[in-house]
Amino acid sequence: MHRFLLLVWILFSFYCCVTSAANAQKWRSRSIYQIVTDRFALSGPSYNTSCDPSALRYCGGTWQGIVDHLDYIQGMGFDAIWISPPFTNVEGFTPSGEAYHGYWPQNLTSYNAHFGTVDDLKNLSASLHSKGMYLMLDVVVNHMLPPNPINTTAFSSEQASANPKNFTTGVAPFTDVSYFHQPCWIGNYSNKTEVEQCWLGNETMPWADVNTEDAGVAGMLSQWISKVISDIGVDGLRLSTVKYVSQDFWKTFTNEAGVFTMGEVLSNSTNHTSAYTEVIDAVLDYPTWFKLVSAFSSPQGNLSSVVDAAVDSQQSYESGAFMTGAFLENHDQPRFGAITNDSALRANAMVWPFIYDGMPVVYYVGQEQGFSGGAVPNNHEPLWRTGYNTSHPYYKMITSLNLARKAAINSGDYFLTTPMKFLRGADGHTLAISKPPMLSLLTNAGQNFSSMVHWNITQSVFKSREQLVDVLTCRVHLSAENGGVDMVSTNGMPKVSLPFRKTIVGWSPC
Length: 510
Ligand SMILES: *[C@@H]1O[C@H](CO)[C@@H](O)[C@H](O)[C@H]1NC(C)=O
Ligand SMILES: *[C@@H]1O[C@H](CO)[C@@H](O)[C@H](O)[C@H]1NC(C)=O
Ligand SMILES: *[C@@H]1O[C@H](CO)[C@@H](O)[C@H](O)[C@H]1NC(C)=O
Ligand SMILES: *[C@@H]1O[C@H](CO)[C@@H](O)[C@H](O)[C@H]1NC(C)=O
Ligand SMILES: *[C@@H]1O[C@H](CO)[C@@H](O)[C@H](O)[C@H]1NC(C)=O
Ligand SMILES: *[C@@H]1O[C@H](CO)[C@@H](O)[C@H](O)[C@H]1NC(C)=O
Ligand SMILES: *[C@@H]1O[C@H](CO)[C@@H](O)[C@H](O)[C@H]1NC(C)=O
Ligand SMILES: *[C@@H]1O[C@H](CO)[C@@H](O)[C@H](O)[C@H]1NC(C)=O
Ligand SMILES: *[C@@H]1O[C@H](CO)[C@@H](O)[C@H](O)[C@H]1NC(C)=O
Ligand SMILES: *[C@@H]1O[C@H](CO)[C@@H](O)[C@H](O)[C@H]1NC(C)=O
Ligand SMILES: *[C@@H]1O[C@H](CO)[C@@H](O)[C@H](O)[C@H]1NC(C)=O
Ligand SMILES: *[C@@H]1O[C@H](CO)[C@@H](O)[C@H](O)[C@H]1NC(C)=O
Prior knowledge:
Domain Glycosyl hydrolase family 13 catalytic: 34-405
Protein name: alpha-amylase
Distance between the termini: 58 Å
Strand order of the largest sheet: 11-10-9-5-2-1-14-13
CATH topology of the largest domain: TIM Barrel
CATH architecture of the largest domain: Alpha-Beta Barrel
Cofactor: Ca(2+)
Structural class: alpha/beta
Helix content: 25-40%
Number of strands: 22
Strand content: 15-25%
Bound molecules: 2-acetamido-2-deoxy-beta-D-glucopyranose
Number of helices: 16
InterPro entries: A-amylase-like (IPR013777), A_amylase_C_dom (IPR015340), GH (IPR017853), GH13_cat_dom (IPR006047), Glyco_hydro_b (IPR013780)
Shape: globular
Keywords: Calcium, Carbohydrate metabolism, Disulfide bond, Glycoprotein, Glycosidase, Hydrolase, Metal-binding, Signal
Oligomer: single chain
């Protein structure tokens, strides 16, 4: 009898906590494709509907549309997707347009009908799982956008108490003004209390700030997220507007969620982002992103600032730079193609997330179809207008990078747990990055560089006279006598080398 109970307990705990909870360890090998649900795919047979991002309106993308195009995503080597917040948002045309992006929640207990039914969302989760892929949901808990005008002046006055539920009519689960902070606008971003407790937006477009310091509110949000995770079958969370909510709140919330969490802390300094890695599994590595974009935006960019930023992340974050989200583009920032159209610079910058310690996060369409929209909303182009072209050079390049990373992970060389190292032998225009068994050579010389870019790596990174393959061109070359590498590039393109024998497991494009 006891033995039987023990067996039941073991089976239960295996099922509940070992098998199903997708924690940080289960995520770290993954590669994430970020989707703005409204702009990725329409339902049904692919037809061409016009969608003008500058109109700030819903364009019709759905969860079923994503299900229909999972092969397109998996074909590029991604094994996880991050989708827009799926909850019911404020309806109608606000002073800032429609909530097609999902970041203006109104009813957290219901799902955004523009994206389909809750069964479609469950079907997306099930379809992903049947392909061995993970689902990451984007969630916003900092604020709500009520349907009724908020008179912030009258918020706590007699008028408000006479009709306290007014602006929260239609809001759930926070059905009363008492669930929100007193209105005030964030004026001083160096004052943490103000950032966490005052409101984003303004009188015209107020974002009602949820009182997440309140234990009752925090408890409701914890219960809510647990239910969402089990109802839908969610493997990870991307936490929005992290710096506007206290660390204490995140600690409880992420514990309760029990799945991998990655937070958005928009800042150029690890002084600011690193504290959050104590309460969230990882952050999107914005401090490195700022340097990456500026270093590769022109041949005048400062490559050593990228090295400094990456080393800083490795040293400042709770888990080093491991598990951080490494990205070149996202829905909040101008696409890299809007910053430079130099094809060599773009290729070099695009390589970065795949050779980094963290997880690559690639923004839909951005890179694989060469879109170049600038600041919001121009970077929210509809993907269907490309016809899901799997022969675009960037689609192929991302495929190679994903497969090369997987080959490195499977090589037995501890790729996932060995911090990337910057090697000597790189001048002002070049970087040499070792993450065994991979060696990446980057340059910001650009496509018009008049002489040859030269990497002279005299340290031993490979075996002597070993056959190496540049995964971007499939060209084979040899390491030097001492295991170093001496290579040139005539067109400013990057090189990502793996020992030929390591590419056999799980990798075959060459
Ligand atoms: C998803 O829904 C479709 C019908 O729309 C169904 O054929 C398919 O089996 C469902 N997939 C999963 C994994 O539930
Ligand atoms: C907002 O409330 C204040 C104070 O009660 C009142 O004076 C003002 O007229 C109200 N504004 C609007 C637009 O209702
Ligand atoms: C809420 O108050 C606003 C004025 O502040 C008013 O225009 C609106 O009709 C009220 N809505 C409800 C549902 O009472
Ligand atoms: C929120 O959504 C749930 C589920 O659809 C619904 O039952 C509830 O009435 C909604 N709440 C409000 C305030 O509209
Ligand atoms: C902003 O807040 C910081 C930290 O609380 C404070 O030191 C600084 O004086 C404030 N700046 C202004 C302009 O109020
Ligand atoms: C920070 O902001 C809070 C709320 O606005 C305020 O009470 C406090 O005095 C500010 N602190 C500093 C140092 O400016
Ligand atoms: C309020 O915010 C909206 C949306 O961001 C913006 O368009 C508008 O200019 C702002 N109004 C003021 C008075 O700052
Ligand atoms: C970082 O961001 C802050 C605030 O936005 C800005 O004042 C500062 O100049 C930036 N620092 C660097 C090194 O880019
Ligand atoms: C981070 O903090 C250190 C030490 O206080 C300081 O020297 C450095 O300038 C800060 N960096 C940024 C980007 O704020
Ligand atoms: C490049 O950035 C580093 C900081 O990471 C700085 O120390 C160095 O002076 C910069 N070089 C140039 C040429 O601006
Ligand atoms: C879809 O429509 C756009 C704009 O009308 C056009 O530029 C594009 O070529 C079309 N794409 C396909 C795949 O038909
Ligand atoms: C590479 O660097 C080594 C050591 O600094 C030097 O001896 C060698 O001549 C260099 N090779 C080339 C081709 O520049």
